[in-house]
């Protein structure tokens, strides 16, 4: 398996002071009015679609789409090095739905791989609606044997789709396991989970 490479991205420095000072006053006022109108349109559009947004681990209920989000930093915590599936983090996403439909959950996880040449570092993660189960496709962090000794950082995205049959509050987890060899191992970093409920019909 080809080894992924770690990259560091830095935003270019941009001087904007002179641009702000040279902008005509009328153009600035027009931009502000456009921004305000855009926000109003977004709020009205969300209301018309029945969309509810929350940044907590518990979503509200309603007749339409529901979005729930939660974030947790488990930096320094080992991903379980086991032969079977475990919870990767204690993070739980609660999604409350008003009836039957489908919940799609996406988890983005930063993984630190501690690697010594001659071994490989690897961890598989999943999104699950039950703790310690690993359904569907894995998201894989991997550094191959010949790669130089070092610490590597990779960002994974795991997605799960789940059918719900009635109004309820369901729990979703990030699960998986480490299967590195030798002295290699993996640790977690920041993880974010977002769940979207799509009602039937």
Outline of the structure:
By secondary structure, the protein is of the alpha+beta class.
Note the gap between the termini: 43 Å
Q: How many alpha or pi helices?
A: 2
Instruction: Give the rounded overall mean pLDDT.
Output: 76
Total E-strand runs: 8
Low-confidence stretches: 1-62
Largest sheet: 4 strands, antiparallel
Determine the fraction of residues in helical runs and give it as a percent range: 10-25%
| CATH class category label of the largest domain | Mainly Beta
- Structural class call reads alpha+beta
CATH overall fold name of the largest domain: Jelly Rolls
CATH architecture of the largest domain: Sandwich
Strand content: 35-45%
The helix/strand series, from N terminus to C terminus, equals: HHEEEEEEEE
Total count of domains: 2
> What would the principal axes of the Cα set say about the shape?
elongated
Characterization of this structure:
This protein is α+β, with helices and mostly antiparallel strands. The chain has 2 domains: 18-48; 51-199, Sandwich (Jelly Rolls), CATH 2.60.120.760. The protein has 2 helices and 8 strands, in the order H-H-E-E-E-E-E-E-E-E. The protein has helices at residues 17-22, 25-49; strands spanning 66-73, 86-97, 101-115, 121-128, 139-143, 150-164, 168-178, 185-199. The protein has a 4-stranded antiparallel β-sheet, with no helix packed on it. It has a 4-stranded antiparallel β-sheet with strand order 2-7-4-5, with no helix packed on it. The longest helix has 25 residues, at 25-49. It is elongated and about 55 Å long.
